Amino acid sequence: METKQNTCVFASVKQFITTENNGNLLIQCGLALFTIYILYKFFIGGRKNLPCRPVRDIGVSPASLGTGPKIDCVNPATGKSMGIVNALKPEEVKKCLAEAKIAQAEWATTSFDERRQVLQDFIDMFIANENEIVESSMKDTGKTRFEAMFGEILTSCEKLRYLIKHGEDALKPQTRRVPMLMGTKSGRLEYHPMGTIGIIIPWNYPVHSIISAAAAAIFAGNAALVKVSEWSTHSKILFEHLVRQVLSKRGHNPNLIQILPGMGETGEALVRSGVDKILFIGSPGTGKRVMKAASDNLTPVILELGGKDPMIIFDDVNLDWALAIAQRGCFINLGQNCISAERVFVHEKIYDKFCKAMADKINSLTQGPPEEGHFDFGSMTMPAQVDKVESLVQSAIKEGATLLAGGKRNPKYSKGNFFMPTVLSNVTEDMTIFNEEAFGPVCTIVKFSSEQDLIRMANGTVFGLGCSILTPDLKKAERVGSKISTGMLTINDYGASYLVQDLPFGGCKESGFGRFNGPEGLRGFSREVSVLTDRFPIITPVPRLIRYPIDPAAVGIIRQAILMIYSNGLTLKLKAGLNFAGKVMKNPKLLL
User: Fold this and answer.
1) Number of C-beta neighbours around residue 314 at 10 A
2) Which end of the chain has fewer CB atoms surrounding its CB within 10 Å, N or C?
3) Of 380, 490, 436, 334, which is closest to residue 74 (Cα–Cα)?
4) 426: alpha, beta or left, given left = phi > 0 and alpha = psi -120 to 50?
């Protein structure tokens, strides 16, 4: 009877499903249920019971109360002053640190959910204030709207998104193995906040550099003191207000992130102030001085010190494709990039075609003040850097290089820091421009024929930050890339690894050491604590073998244990095991 009823039920269900309208209805119901599940998962189920903190007064940042030398904030594209900001004196830097410590003590007790909430607020802040942030960067640096949008907004949002999604995983305790002799114990590695991170950034990305380092620092539970360059200080006024607004609205101490204006004296004061770690991004010369100053307090440092990155282009590439990547590698942000492709190595078979095509393209592009219209290139930021680029280009020409494009200050805009995008061919490894970082809009093209010569030349500078290789032959790219002294290798692209925030960023040789971005960057802002504890909730007795006074038989037992565990060969292990057992049987009390 039961079987007949089941058969009837199954038949009825089958008939219902196979009926066209009913089948469609089932599909619609399934989609509706799936949609409800997704909405619940991401909009309701993902919500946490976060503490409701009262809004705080935004107050005034201690970093905005400087009484030191006046910094005239000049728009590098127009030469016009945008206002005066006072640098911080050394004693004022210490006051900033004292306030940061108070804020960090509170912040360290927050959960990762609260920290994610603040970082999402930062993303919302970038989106809501996109135009103001972009224009502040344009006026501070002379870069175009595109460069500001891409380099300040997009990269910052991606950094924050990565931390929100994956930051907690990087900082979770890690289980570590224990040896057989310690079988009753378990080991783990924990990541704790360090305290306050001192961050010194350059002028090329004045907004992104602040939030990239500061967001990682606070996600790891720290406070952040960010010293900005005197050449891009004006944007700090807007950005500091926005950051403090986010923190205070969520009920957190707005002094958690402070943006310090100043020159060399302020930077040195920050290094010597007693912060718990320093991240410095800048030139090798200044980086060495930072390291020396930090050594007085044994303050650990991360140094990212620029590069002379090679871009290698083999003869099997599509020329138009390779040109597009090389142009971006050489001229993005007008070459003011630590990972700019400063040396473009091109195979001799396509060398002449590549040089002509590169020069034709660059000669066809436009340059001018971003506020006056749409241009492909804006101005450089730092006047002294224009002088350096001009000197390097003129030296290269005297040393035998061929000028194909640019090579001089733009005569149309004498008031701004305009150096024309430049293409040099016939560059050789004995030229000054081959070895010194230009940090400007110069494409130096070097001919190569054999892989052996290529690798020698690519490794022929004191730098080792990044490297790009263009070829459809991935085995060749991997083979050559493995022989380049570099911290980052990108195949068939340029600079893309920076948007892959799970990859650490940093170099070797005089390009520095330590990493930011990725799990390594977060952990670099953390204090590592090794924890060894009991595996089971019982107290393990201390064997008589290792108690004082030491029994004379203990040495022989330990010796046989060493041979049994560490000897190479089964026979030796068995022999030692038998001897161990014999000695233990004679002295059983020693293992109790």
Assistant:
1) 22
2) N
3) 380
4) left
State the CB neighbour count (10 A cutoff) for residue 242.
17
Per-residue pLDDT tens over the stretch 360-370:
999 999 999 99
**Model-level pTM?**
0.89
Per the DSSP assignment, residues forming a β-bridge with 191 are 528
pLDDT more than 90, % of the chain = 87
Residues whose CB is less than 8 angstroms from the CB of residue 311 and which lie 6 or more positions away in sequence, other chains included: 325, 326, 329, 330, 341, 343, 344, 345, 467, 468, 469, 470, 494
Contact partners, residue 341, CB within 8 Å, separation at least 6: 309, 310, 311, 326, 329, 330, 443, 468, 494
Within its chain, how far is the Cα of 161 from the centroid?
13
| Among candidate residues 208, 252, 262, 224, the one with its CA nearest the CA of residue 64 | 262
User: For position 569, what pLDDT does the model report?
Assistant: 92
Q: Where are the domains of the chain?
A: 2-44, 62-72+90-170+193-306+522-529, 309-462+466-504, 541-591
Q: Catalytic site residue 168?
A: no
Structure tokens at 196: 């306050």
- Selecting among 99, 114, 304, 437, the annotated active-site residue is 304
Q: CA dist 139 to 77, 131, 135, 274, 322, Å?
A: 8, 12, 6, 34, 32
CA–CA separation, 25 vs 20, rounded Å?
9
Q: Which fold has domain 309-462+466-504?
A: Aldehyde Dehydrogenase; Chain A, domain 2 (3.40.309)
What is residue 370's predicted lDDT score, i.e. its pLDDT?
Answer: 95
* Cβ-based neighbour number of residue 398 at 10 Å: 10
Phi and psi at residue 186, to the nearest 5°: -130, 145
| 368 phi and psi angles, rounded to 5 deg | 180, 175
489-525 confidence digits (pLDDT tens): 999 999 888 889 999 999 999 999 999 999 999 999 9
Give the per-residue pLDDT at 25. 66
CATH of domain 62-72+90-170+193-306+522-529: 3.40.605.10
Q: Is the pLDDT of residue 20 over 70?
A: no
332 residue type, one letter: I
Determine the Cα–Cα distance for residues 6 and 4; give it in Å rounded to an integer. 5
What does the alpha-carbon distance between residue 443 and residue 435 come to, in Å, rounded to a whole number? 13
